[in-house]
Every structure is written in structure tokens, then in C-alpha cells.
Design goal:
Elements lengths: L19 H4 L13 H11 L2 H13 L11 H14 L7 H13 L17 H13 L11 H19 L13 H10 L7 H8 L6 H16 L9 H14 L6 H23 L4 H12 L9 H25 L4 H17 L6 H5 L2 H11 L15 H27 L9 H15 L7 H19 L2 H12 L5
GO molecular function: magnesium ion binding; terpene synthase activity
Cofactor: Mg(2+)
InterPro entries: Isoprenoid_synthase_dom_sf (IPR008949), Terpene_synth_N (IPR001906), Terpene_synth_N_sf (IPR036965), Terpene_synthase-like (IPR050148), Terpene_synthase_metal-bd (IPR005630), Terpenoid_cyclase/PrenylTrfase (IPR008930)
Amino acid sequence: MHTVPTTLLYSLEGLDDLDWERLLALQWPEGSFFYSPASTAAAFMQTKNEGCLRYLENVTKIFDGGAPCTYPVDLFKRLWAVDRLERLGISRYFEFQIRECLDYVYRYWTETGIYVSRYTNITDVDDSAMGFRLLRLHGASQIVFPGEKILHEAKMFTTKFLRDKQASNDFFDKWIITKDLRGEVEYALSFPWYASLPRIETRFYVEQYGGDDDVWLGKTIYRWYAECKLDEYGLVKDELLKAFFLAASSIFEPERALERLSWAKTSFLVYVLTSYFKEQAINIKSRRQFALDFVGSSLCPARNASGRYLVFALNKTIESLSLDVLAKHNRDIHHHLEESWKEWIIKWQLGEEHEGWESREQGVELLIRTIELCAGRSIVPEIAPSKETPYDRLTYLTLSICNHIHQEMLKVKREDDYNEANTNGNLNELQMQELVQRVLDNSDDLNQDTKKTFLTIVKSFYYNAHCPSATLDVHLSKVLFERVD
């Protein structure tokens, strides 16, 4: 410890038999020992070093006669402030400040990482890991891009370490101020980043999270359910509640209530259509007739009562969402929304004859388009059709990943009726890494919020695959109904 800097320099006041003259060679430029006022004070008492005195006088002047356990912490405080704002689900109110904080950290980032402050070449794991994760998430890197084997190895090591701690019930960490470290670890192990929905993570992290707006939206959806006569098809409201829960857990900002509502309605209508035609063993001819009824519904009524109710529900939903978007964004999306539904229904009714029908049956692309339209954004950029656009690639990756997850869930359900599917196939993992990379990349002209919609939908599929039904019920209750004491 007398020849190279180690963390022992942080606690010199508690050590005996030290060679203080040799230790002075490890003193940091501003006069401290490892940014520790206590350690530096001990060194000053033994050596009367002027550098130690200058550091201590500066600290006590800044803190009006007192001193924190560590100073300065200019990198640490910025990183942890950003992390807490994001965990609390309120980062959208501090976008400018977050950008300033991360720009500051990036300015002093080194190839070997960082420590709590910019004034040293020493690095440590926790500050470097936090900085790496936040910088990459904000476009500068927990997130793995294709070919980064070291992060895969780090994930395996940390997962094993945490599972060992979990098994031995050893969750003590003197550096972490948290009420429920065990709960944070258990949630992180059960729901990896791909499968973690922001509002669920927030609800388990904070002590208070209001839900008044979602109660109102929930009543709106149930009223829509009754007015559209969807109860005629023998479908329980639990699926509607689940659809709204996934939407509310993924898009939780109050100002995005319309996107949340459109997600829940669209997802449930897709479920109604696919379930009804499957359960009634309706043949392909009848399914195609329904598609024709909807496509031509503006010209003539549907031929049968069941089809008429469904066509009515679709048209009413399209009309309602279009009016809401017109009022909020001053944009008429009726034609685009109707065409999106027609395109999905035509491809869906072709069934197995059409490539990629499994993911389209789940309405993934339709859901993305609906959310984008209800957010007031265009759904497809105008680029030559002969060239694959960033939007096309994101669509392909999203459909492929969601289809894989859906097929894994079906396979697991057939085998043992257990809800957690294997979503970690090599191909799927590589595609997910590419999707994340493309979403975080700022080099193309595609709207950043549009790209995030693709990732949001995929994460909801991952969550649904990872979450056993009993756990989902607990999460649903906590997010939508329970108030925190």
C-alpha cells in the first residue's frame, strides 16, 4: 500500500504502523488521500503537510465548517442523480439537465473507466459500470451490441455472483443506501433489461406512485368494451385488463394517455378477432368473408350478426381514436389508421399461407403504427421502395423477435403449461442486440421516439414471456390498484 494507490488510502485514520513519508508520494494533486477528509486529516496530523491542510480548509469552507465522507464527487453525483431520475420515472422532466450531466461525464471518460471525480486517474467498477450503462443508453453503453463478448462474460459473472448472494441470503453492502436491496436483486434477476417494463420497475423502486389517471382510463376502456358489445364473444375482461396493464407499464407518462389507450384497445381487438375465429373453428372462407366485410364496410353492412358487431367495434374504435388525435395533435389520421387495420386483416385472414403470419396475428406492426399515429407522428418515411430503410429494418427485427417469443411461449404451453418461455436463443439474442443498437443510434433521420416504440413493444413481449401468471397478477395489482404506504 506504500507503493501503489489502493482503496486503503481511503481509511488511513484506522491503520497503524504507517510510513507516512512514503505515503505522501501517493497524495493526490489537490492534497487529499483518496478524496477522504478523514484520511487526509489523519495524514496532516502525522506530517503537517501543507497540501493536506489546503484540501481540508477548502472542504470545510465549502461545507460551512463540516465535511462529507468523500469530496469531490462530481462524476458520482451526476451519474447517480440521472439513474435515480430514470428509476423514479420522471426523467422526461429533466432531459436538458440529464444531457448536461452525461456530457460532463463523457468529457472525462477514459478507456479504463472513471472514479467518483474527474481529478484522478484511479478507476473503480461501480462508477465505471454506471457511467457505461447510462452513456450507452443515451447514445454515446448493461446494453450489449453485437460482437461485444466481454459484456456477455460480465453478465454471466455478475448473474452468478448475485445468485450466490441470493442463495446465501447475503445482501449487506455498506456503500448502498436502500431499503430493499434484496428486492432490487430479485427483480433484476427475474426480469433482465429486455423484459423489464419501466413502470413496473419504478413501482418496485419507489414508495409512492400515483394511479388516478389510469383509474380514469380504465373506466374509459371498460365503457368502450360495453359499447362495442365485445362481451357478446364470451371473452373475459381479464384480457382487456392485461392489455391495459402492459400499455400502462410501458408508456406511463401522463401526457401520453392517448398512446396508452390506443395500445390497449388495439391489442384487445386483435385478441378478440384471433380468439373468436379460433374458438369457433370458423373456416378460412368465413374468415375471408369477415375481411371483405370490414374492407367494404363503408359501402355495405356485414353479412352476419357476429361479423357486424366486430366491424362496428373496429370502425367505432378507429373513429374514436381519430377524433382524439385530431383534438390533441390537429392531425387527421382516420385514413391511415383504417388502412393499417385493413392491411393487417387482409394479411391475417391469409393465415399460414402468408409468410410471417404468426407475428402479424399478434398485431405487432399494427400496434406500432397505431401508437405512432396516436402520438402525432408519421408512420413510414418517404424513401425509394427499392432500398431498405431504417424503418424497414426495425420492422423486420421486431416482427422476427416477437414471432420467436410467441412461438416459444406456445411451445412451452404445449409442453407443461408453464408461462416462462425460453427467449434466449442465439439468433434472437443477436437480433435483439441489433435492434437495441439501431434504436440508440442517432445517425439516421428516423425519429428517435419512433425507434423507441419498436423497442417498447418488443420489451412488452419479453416481459409477457418471462412472467408467470401469478407474478403478472401481483405486478398488475401493484401498478394499477395498490397505493404505497
